[in-house]
């Protein structure tokens, strides 16, 4: 298998250690063949960031045309890794520009992503029907602790699920309350680092969108 297979199995190992990659590959081929609209999210870590562009091209070669690049949360991104991430995304942008005939949709460029993800206001429903704050799933590596700290409600016991919601402010307050009181300096440092990464990326993507609008205006 390719490096992409090794990356997938390393970052998303199965519980019993089996190789499930052939099944993913098979399902992606069927979805493409049946013309089912779907999006692939490629999660980049500081350790794999230098392969962002090559992994993107690998997905394109599989026939995938809608891709989103996500940066890994709950880990520290130093300046060199952030610089590498932007460089790799820039290579993706240039590749798309040269291959417009492929009809690639790079979600990061269309401005629809809700940032910062570290303060995502979405709620998540687990397999057992328990509702959690999304931020808990993004950052907390201790899932037993996460289920206690970020519990919202049990969907099987609520009369109207629409009454439950969250905001970025609420999530920031939750993070400050849970981790600030525990004096977990390492996690607080990581959370602020992830938010800073978003600020840098948002500036980059805004610049790219403005350039795209200007180019379209000139062409018109």
What's the total helix number?
Answer: 8
Strand content: 5-15%
Largest sheet: number of strands, sense, barrel closure: 3 strands, parallel
Computed Rg: 19 Å
N-to-C terminal Cα separation, in Å?
Answer: 45 Å
Question: How does the overall form come out from the CA principal axes?
Answer: globular
Classify the secondary structure makeup into a structural class: mainly alpha
Assembly state: single chain
Q: Helix share of residues?
A: 40-55%
**How do the strands line up in the largest sheet?**
1-2-3
SSE ordering: HHEHEHEEEHHEHH
Low-pLDDT regions: none
Tally of strands: 6
Mean pLDDT figure: 80
Tell me what the structure shows:
With 220 residues, the protein is mainly alpha-helical. Helices cover 52% and strands 11% of the residues. The chain is built from eight helices and six strands, in the order ααβαβαβββααβαα. The chain has helices spanning 3-11, 21-33, 52-61, 79-98, 134-139, 143-149, 168-181, 185-219, and strands at 40-44, 66-71, 105-106, 123-125, 130-133, 151-154. It has a three-stranded parallel sheet. A three-stranded antiparallel sheet has the order 4-5-6. Helix 4 (79-98) links the parallel strand 2 (66-71) and strand 3 (105-106). The relative contact order is 0.10.
Write the layout of secondary structure elements.
Layout: H1 3-11, H2 21-33, E1 40-44, H3 52-61, E2 66-71, H4 79-98, E3 105-106, E4 123-125, E5 130-133, H5 134-139, H6 143-149, E6 151-154, H7 168-181, H8 185-219
Parallel strand pairs: 1-2, 2-3
Antiparallel strand pairs: 4-5, 5-6
């Amino acid at each position: 298998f390719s490096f992409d297979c090794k990356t997938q199995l390393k970052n998303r190992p199965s519980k019993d250690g089996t190789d499930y990659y052939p099944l993913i590959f098979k399902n992606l081929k069927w979805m493409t063949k049946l013309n089912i609209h779907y999006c692939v999210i490629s999660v980049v870590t500081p350790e794999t960031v230098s392969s962002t562009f090559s992994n993107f091209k690998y997905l394109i070669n599989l026939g995938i045309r809608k891709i989103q690049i996500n940066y890994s949360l709950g880990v520290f991104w130093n300046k060199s890794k952030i610089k590498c991430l932007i460089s790799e995304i820039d290579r993706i942008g240039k590749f798309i520009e040269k291959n417009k005939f492929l009809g690639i949709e790079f979600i990061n460029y269309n401005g629809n992503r809700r940032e910062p993800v570290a303060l995502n206001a979405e709620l998540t429903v687990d397999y057992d029907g328990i509702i959690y704050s999304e931020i808990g799933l993004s950052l907390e590596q201790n899932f037993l602790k996460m289920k206690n700290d970020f519990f919202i409600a049990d969907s099987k016991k609520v009369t109207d699920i629409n009454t439950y919601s969250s905001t970025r402010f609420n999530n920031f307050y939750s993070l400050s309350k849970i981790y600030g009181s525990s004096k977990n300096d390492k996690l607080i440092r990581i959370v602020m680092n992830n938010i800073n990464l978003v600020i840098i990326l948002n500036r980059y993507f805004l610049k790219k969108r403005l350039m795209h609008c200007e180019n379209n205006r000139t062409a018109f």
